[in-house]
Amino acid sequence: MTVTVETAAAVDVAEPGGTPVVLDPAAAERQTLIERWAERHGVDAAHRLAEAEDLADAVAKEITPDNTEDTYAKSWRVWQRFCSSTGLPELEGSRGALVAFVTWMLREGQQNGKGYAPSSASTHLAAAVVGLRDRKVTVSGDDQSEARTALEGLAVKLLQAGERRGRGQAVGADVDGLRAIVRSCPDTLTGDRDKALVLTGFNYASRSQDPAGLQSGDVTLRPQGLVVAVLTGKTKHSVRNAKIRYAQDPELCPVRAYTAYRARLVAEHGRQWADPSTPAFVGIDQHGHVTGGMVPDSVTRAIKRISKRAGVPIHWTGHSLRIGLASTGRKQGKDGIAIADQGGWARHSRSMLGYMQRDDGWDDNASAGLT
To answer: pLDDT band at residue 253, thresholds of 50, 70 and 90?
Structure first.
């Protein structure tokens, strides 16, 4: 006797009168699992186990970062365009299809007909495989690995042919740029916010999402300076307490800049902004109205706009402040472990070492003075 238990993910296998109901693969798999539970533990227990599965699905969705969901959705649309262009079925992840996918992406995959940069193609490949597996398509690790090997080989061919794709690493913030930015900020709440955003972000190696996620209670004033409680980690989150000291140069002091900005915000827009639950960095429109908390995209746009206003030769991006702490700290002889701890990198992180840029390769040159 087959027992049918209804959940949000599964329905009866037969309607009254014996008409079969066609379930999608995920629902059919869940239904089979529920029927097995019912046979083992009884219908009531199967109901409870099914509700627990629904809860697990909801929690998984809740804890998946929005930008990860966006990446998966975007990459799936790229996969769909590939399948439409080549006439291949969407729900097949064979070795040949995956190799054809990376080849297509490098040759013509963008909507303007140009090829993707290898790094972008790699991201789309990984996310498309996730999308296929989410849709119950079997994709073997060997087939995915062969597609990635093909991608890496084709990327080498592009380099050998003289093609350099992608934007490359963002330019790092530096002290001269910080000074130009500070001096270009107008005497307005927006100007004070911009100054505080850049000076504090540089000193704790912020990503765009870091200041966007801060509440005012996450930034505390101590006798030595500020402590910024930064939520870190892409999948496993923790809080990093970055300490920012008063600067010797008052013009570039992040502590003075932040406290002045917050005092002005409260003075001009009310005591409610002193509440610790309010956003640390607020959006401000062209008329000076506070629009709420900043989001990562608005932080990135603000940093680009601020650097452009200051006349910084190469406009900064949302990642410039993070690169700037690593590269400037290294040039000034700061210990690599201290830099890693301040910026939230793993000690001896490869990405951090890559950020420790040199202006021209002459300073701190490994071959200097050897002969």
So the answer is: very high
Cα–Cα distances in angstroms (integers) from residue 256 to residues 191, 196, 209, 211, in the given order: 14, 8, 23, 17
Could you read off the pLDDT of 283-333 as tens digits, one per residue? Answer: 999 899 999 999 888 999 999 999 999 998 778 988 899 998 988 998 888
* Unique residue bearing structure tokens 């019912």: 38
What predicted TM-score, i.e. pTM, was given to this entire model? 0.62
